[in-house]
Specification:
This protein is α/β, with parallel strands linked by helices and about 450 residues long. The chain has a single domain, classed as Glycosidases (TIM Barrel, Alpha-Beta Barrel), CATH 3.20.20.80. It has 15 helices and 15 strands. Helix 14 links the parallel strand 11 and strand 12. Helix 13 packs parallel to helix 14. The model has no long low-confidence stretch (mean pLDDT about 95). Bound molecules: beta-D-fucopyranose. The site of beta-D-fucopyranose (FCB) has 12 residues, from loops. The site of beta-D-fucopyranose has 12 residues, from loops.
């Protein structure tokens, strides 16, 4: 048996806009994702997230199902435009009440809530006022975060400020494949800074009022390797590692942006957006770092203008497929790279406990004629990644939990409902939840706190 440490946290993760539906219930106003998903051509089949899993109305059933899977934790996010529909000013009690009901239902079923304050659904009114490229948004986020924390802190111990600010900044403002769909490299770098500043302001304020709260952030760091040993490819890997990983980790841990990355970005944007003690503010003490991992990248110096739009300021870089098996997203499956990532992070950024806050696989799951969904490939994926996690722990990494993305199939951003990541099958026409074979497998692993050898 491969046993995990005592008190290892087992959970699943979701995000508000991907599951809740009920987009205009009880005073909620539009987020950037409502606007984006209603813009023709942005989402597969032009399918918006208006209904998704109807979790807003079915949370009690979902909480019972989560409890039946022996999960210690449910990581979910709060929709800012539900709790503070105008992005500033008073809290909407009806919006906050939804999360109180959800949390109470979780606790009744023996599941601890783990709250993410921002998983990408910025109030549209704040985007209209400049969005994340505008400094004021950092202060708006901190106000919202503190008010939401105050409203829910009596029932929640673990708080994540932001989910994957890399995606918010670079997919949202450089590649434009995520809301708000902007393609402006300079804006994306300012967005990085204001997201991190918002995190720092919020984390400091929460800590000051409640020292017992556990406050952290979730990033999506990626292992980056050069395609060859050539100087050009190694420098390409340095640039992408800088943009994807160090640009976030260095200020969070050490209160300083990496000088080589700022140099790389000098032609994109001047650094006047970094003011006063911002970098110190960003380096608020972290109680944990959340890591979302799906696949690694191998990069090389490319030919002219092959660079991906997310690789802002990196010159001509391209990623190279390794010929590994891929998920239904086309993402390469590489569990050993998760081990490598965890060991590297804990070596270069020691002292803060780590959690894998997302890991999982999209597959073309089918509801069988007998009413079951068999997904042995997902079991193999999770098993392989959990073994990598266990090896990292054995190598000394202080890793305290693992969350599967995701609980039930849901609305996967620009892919709509065409991608299925869940442990539970979602039959959209009926909204029936049908646990897949991987759900039973994961429930068993969580109950035993161990894998078979
Ligand atoms: C992560 C996101 C999550 C989901 C998974 C597949 O980047 O945090 O919402 O989209 O990828």
């Amino acid at each position: 048996m491969i046993e995990f440490p005592d008190n290892f946290a087992w959970g699943v993760a979701t995000a508000s806009y991907q599951v809740e539906g009920a987009v205009d219930a009880d005073g909620r106003r539009p987020s950037i994702w409502d606007t984006f998903s209603h813009t023709p051509g942005k989402i597969v089949a032009d399918e918006p997230g208006d209904i998704a899993n109807d979790h807003y109305h079915r949370y009690a059933e979902d909480a019972r199902l989560l409890g039946s899977l022996n999960l210690g934790y449910y990581r979910f996010s709060v929709a800012w435009p539900r709790v503070q529909p105008d992005g500033r000013g008073p809290i909407n009690p009806a919006g906050l009440d939804f999360y109180k009901r959800l949390i109470d239902a979780l606790l009744e079923n023996g599941v601890q809530p783990w709250v993410t304050l921002y998983h990408w659904d910025l109030p549209q009114v704040l985007e209209d006022a400049g969005g994340w490229p505008a400094r004021d948004t950092a202060y708006r986020f901190a106000d919202y975060a503190v008010a939401t924390f105050e409203g829910l802190q009596d029932r929640v111990r673990h708080w994540t400020t932001l989910n994957e600010p890399w995606c918010s900044a670079f997919l949202g403002y450089a590649a434009g494949t995520h809301a708000p769909g902007v393609t402006d490299p300079a804006a994306s770098i300012r967005a990085v800074h204001h997201l991190l500043l918002g995190h720092g302001l919020a984390a400091r304020a929460i800590r000051a009022s409640h020292p017992d709260a556990e406050v952290g952030i979730t990033l999506n760091p990626q292992p980056i390797q050069p395609a060859t040993d050539s100087d050009a490819d190694r420098d390409a890997a340095r640039r992408i590692d800088g943009l994807r990983n160090r640009l976030f980790l260095d200020p969070l841990y050490y209160g300083k942006y990496p000088a080589d990355v700022l140099d790389d970005l000098a032609g994109v944007v001047d650094d006047s957006y970094i003011q006063g003690d911002d970098e110190k503010t960003i380096a608020a003490p972290l109680d944990f770092l959340g890591i979302n991992y799906y696949s690694p990248a191998v990069v090389r110096q490319g030919a002219d203008s092959v660079s991906d739009a997310v690789y802002v300021g990196s010159g001509d870089v391209e990623s190279v497929a390794q010929g590994l098996p891929v998920s239904d997203m086309g993402w390469e499956i590489a569990p050993d790279s998760l081990h490598e990532l965890l060991v590297r992070l804990y070596r270069d950024y020691p002292g803060v406990p780590l959690y894998v806050t997302e890991n999982g696989i999209a597959l073309q799951d089918r509801l069988g004629a007998d009413g079951t969904v068999e997904d042995p490939e997902r079991i193999a994926y999770l098993d392989g990644h959990l073994r990598a996690v266990h090896r990292a722990i054995a190598d000394g990494v202080d890793l305290r939990g693992y969350f599967v993305w995701t609980f039930a199939d849901n609305w996967e951003w620009s892919f709509g409902t065409s991608k299925r990541f869940g442990l539970v099958y979602l039959d959209y026409p009926t909204q029936r939840r049908i646990p897949k074979s991987s759900a039973r497998w994961f429930a068993d692993v969580a109950r035993r706190n161990a894998l078979d050898t």
